[in-house]
Amino acid sequence: MALAYYSLAADREFWTEHWGRHSPAELLRIAEASPLTDLVLAGLPRAGRVLEAGCGLGQYVVLLRARGHRALGADWSLEALAACRRAYPGTPLAVGDLARLPLAPGSLAGYVSLGVVEHDPAGPGALVAEAARVLAPGGALVLSVPYLNGLRRAALPCLRWRSARVRARGGRFYQFAFTAREVRAFLGARGFEVRSLVPYDPARLLRGGLRRLRRRGAGTAPDAPAARAADGAGARAALRRAVRRLLYTPPALALLGHMILATAVRR
Asked: In what side-by-side order are the strands of the sheet with 108-114?
């Protein structure tokens, strides 16, 4: 049932351009406040080396090291890694092919992959097999991919039709989205025992509308009484907290979660 998306190919040039629109410090601030970070940290061991494979601008490598982990990063975008090194000198990073890592078998205690393996048109198998090779038995894998959530499953015929049209017009493979069962299957086939599968980022579809609301709220007239402006800001903050609590309930995550995070151990 995995859903293939077609648009721009997720090749080296794509990621160099993508990361060039952001800064390591900006993404680190987002990571520090993200619910995803607690999930990642909970899935990793406290001791031993941890690799983030496909680290991009390296914000999670920096964050993990700040939290006491012996973290290093690898990516195929030299430009992204150079930007991280400029912002955070001394961060251990390497450019290379994630399917052929220059690491000894069983040399890692933890492996993090956030939104990476879905971009291989041959499927996630090769990258997951390499993760299994470099992890020690009992080592921890924390991996996320786009989630074929309830809303996407309901719209699957339409999404497949749209992808086929894009492909017919010259679109190139971009990524897969997977069900929870498919994630469990491709990890199990490469020697991993899945411990948890948690959807996240349920606000993806709503984020554009929320940004418009914030812009509208930011347009408070300059001569509005300060008390009224403060009350409005407080009401908007309370609304955001209420929406966030609602979106992070299990039914909302199953229906709307944009990504799904797997934690697993190497058998």
From this structure: 93-95, 70-75, 49-53, 108-114, 135-146, 259-266, 192-200
